[in-house]
Amino acid sequence: MQGRHDSSRGNRTIDQSLRSDGPARKKHQDMDWYHGLLPRADINALLEHDGDFLVRTSHIAGHDTAKTVLSVKWKGKCHHWQLQEKEDGSIVIEERKFDSVLDMVTTLRLKRLPVSINCPALLLNPINKQDWELRHDQIVLGKMLGEGAFGGVYKAVFYNKGEKRMVAVKVNKGNEKISTRNMIEDVCKEARIMRQYQHPNVVCFYGVCVEKVRSSLSYHYLLCLFQEPIMLVMELASQGALDSYLKNEKNNVSLRDKLKYSFDASKGLEYLHQRGCIHRDVAARNFLMHKNVVKITDFGLSKQLSDLAHKYKLKDVQAKLPIRWLAPEVIVTATYTFKSDVYSFGILLWEIFMDGATPYPGMILAEVKQKVRVGYRMEAPDRMPTFVRNIMLNMCWPQNPEDRGNMNEIRCAMEGVLDGKFGVANNRSVYYKSL
User: Fold this and answer.
1) Percent of the chain at pLDDT above 90?
2) Rounded CA gap, 142 and 148, in Å?
3) Structural domain spans, the chain
4) CA atoms within 13 A on the CB side of 187
5) Known catalytic residues?
6) Domain 7-122, CATH class in plain words
7) Domain Protein kinase: where (predicted)?
8) Which of the four pLDDT bands, split at 50, 70 and 90, describes residue 85?
9) Global confidence as pTM
10) Which of 353, 322, 318, 359 is nearest to 340 (CA)?
11) What is the β-pairing status of strands 125-126 and 52-59?
12) Which residues are part of a known binding site for ATP?
């Protein structure tokens, strides 16, 4: 099971650190059970059984400093102790002093001493880094592929287990309006969502880099000094973003190509919905092309719902949102459901058959918001086949979310075309069967 390691591996790790004739292990950052800047939400998921433990670094809310934290599961609950670090490298935990973090872990583990008087947790099973927790030295950045408010996306080489592969790396830069802690949590939340999914029409996730070298330094100084930005490592799409591809290759993209792109996108979104994920940003710019296959990406706004939840209410009403792709109920109530993604999928269909054009041409955002909320819809593109027009208008764009189809129904309708249940000729469709 991911996140679980047998105790024998943990013992070997600790024993090696004690051997005088073994490799020199002077820093806890070198140990497999050190997880860098991984946030608490991920840590709590890794600690599964009593005695599971690890060490990490955490940004202190309201301060531009970081602390080393010992995290342990005991009596079914995760406990987190901030360590007091002295200038000489020694640390103090509840008035007990140790030469270093490594000395503390070694002493408490081998002597089976409780971490605290109030909570007699024991360090029994070190939880090592997961495969998706990458080191910065595994990534060599190359050409920038794109840039946004978050930072840039780069083509890069990823070295892993003796092999190398070309990848895309989303590199988050500092932002005065966003705290370092929140930036790390946002990136790791996106990674947490992405690593659950494996599907041909969803961009593949490889890992996240959230290392930290010396926790005594301030975050901004550290990131500047060691050149270690937060990185999200994922599959490299050879043909780039779908909207750009449609614009640049519009003379080479056939009607059947566009039908395939629409079908690919429907399969990817259906897969996410089946697993309880509302994407919240379905748009051509957030689909990538790789070997003529369309893959959904950018989970920065996505929400993973619990088994009992069916909607998500936006907490920050001032948040910057993709207005041209929003369903009317989102504009009015700031409430997202799977059916709001379906509405956005209709906008995506419009984009595909308009060669990547921006929705609601000639309209400013305020006008889009005002008109959509009272029922306005764009006209179907002239080049859109009749059956796709019916899907867009009748299954994606009804004002009432309950009157819309779901992604399974939409995918089945698309599949019917590609399976030959519909004929396509002369850039128009012959409608053989009722949807």
Assistant:
1) 59
2) 17
3) 7-122, 136-235, 241-430
4) 28
5) 281
6) alpha beta
7) 139-418
8) confident
9) 0.80
10) 322
11) parallel
12) 170
